[in-house]
Amino acid sequence: MRDVQNEPDLRRIPLRKVGVTGLRYPIDVLDKANGMQTTTGTADLFVNLPRHFKGTHMSRFVEIFHAYRKDLSMKRFLAMLEEVRRRLDAERAFASVKFPFFIEKTAPVSGQPGLMCYDCGYEGEVFLRDPENGGGISRVFTVSVEVPVTTVCPCSKAISRHGAHNQRGRVRVRVRNTGFFWIEDIISFVESCASCGLYSVLKRKDEKFVTEHAYENPRFAEDLVREVYAGLKNAVSLSPPLCEKPFLWFSVEAENEESIHRHNAYAYAEYTSP
């Protein structure tokens, strides 16, 4: 049959990205406690389109993603991207997938179990370094994790006769690495940097513990970003270490949904390995 996508385009305008967006699919990701976890991913998949092609073959993106859906570990994710690039005859392939990640977390005193949901994602790019001369392949892979936390205001605590205002906050971490690490370890570390982590199930004795623990560990948004930044920069030397190899790049942002202000409080930092 006629292949319109492969026909020449007389406008000769190259496109940076073509592909599919919003592909919702069941996927399996690595789970530290259970081996694998089945969740629902929302994926965007792209390649570049040279100026002499009219279009790309959209169905191939879905075919390839379907084949890799049962294991979207870092290596498999990048292998999927390389297959997308190769099968669509492109110089570059890009992908992102967002998914809810569930961890069973026990209350700090009663030990009551409950599930916590964290919004996570993968982003990747595979490209030819020197396409004109058949250069080698470069690969970039980034993991993003959003961790909900509790923060207590240090200023409010210092100036108030009774108590201090506190609020729920969000810490968003994006890390880039070539070694292995667990999403769960990143989450636990971020929670340890906050005034307190969140829980889905709390009995009264647990509420007492988390309230007092948070009050004893006040954090500005700025404090939170700096604490997480310092740990990620020294991730290999922590006990236990967060990853096998140092992070090549990362960003940290914290946003507090202020309980006594109409606005939110925000801080951001990023690091690139020298």
From TrEMBL:
Keywords carried by this UniProt record: Hydrolase
Pathway this chain belongs to: Cofactor biosynthesis; 7,8-dihydroneopterin triphosphate biosynthesis; 7,8-dihydroneopterin triphosphate from GTP: step 1/1
Entries under InterPro entries matching the protein: GTP_cyclohydrolase_FolE2, GTP_cyclohydrolase_FolE2/MptA
GO MF annotation, one: GTP cyclohydrolase I activity
Pfam families named in the record: GCHY-1 (PF02649)
One GO-annotated biological process of the protein: tetrahydrofolate biosynthetic process
The keyword tRNA-binding belongs to this UniProt entry's keyword annotation: no
Highest taxon listed in the record's lineage: Bacteria
EC number(s) reported in the record: 3.5.4.16
UniProt site positions, description: May be catalytically important: C153
Catalytic activity: GTP + H2O = 7,8-dihydroneopterin 3'-triphosphate + formate + H(+)
Main function: Converts GTP to 7,8-dihydroneopterin triphosphate.
Family: Belongs to the GTP cyclohydrolase IV family.
PANTHER family, alphabetized: GTP CYCLOHYDROLASE MPTA (PTHR36445:SF1)
Annotated protein name in UniProt: GTP cyclohydrolase FolE2
Organism: Candidatus Avitreponema avistercoris
Primary gene name: folE2
